[in-house]
Amino acid sequence: MSKPQNMRLDKLLANLGYGSRREIAMFANAGRFLLDGARIARVDERIALTPDLPARLTFYGEELDPLPGCVVMMHKPLGVTCSHKEAGTRVYSLLPDRWQRRDPAFSTVGRLDKDTSGLLLLTDDGAFLHNVISPKRNIAKKYRAKLDRPLRGDEAAIFAAGTLMLEGEKTPLLPAVLEGVSEREAVLTITEGRYHQVRRMFAAVGNHVVALHREAIGGLVLPEDLEPGEFMVLDDLAKAEIFA
Question: Does pTM surpass 0.85?
Answer without folding.
Answer: yes
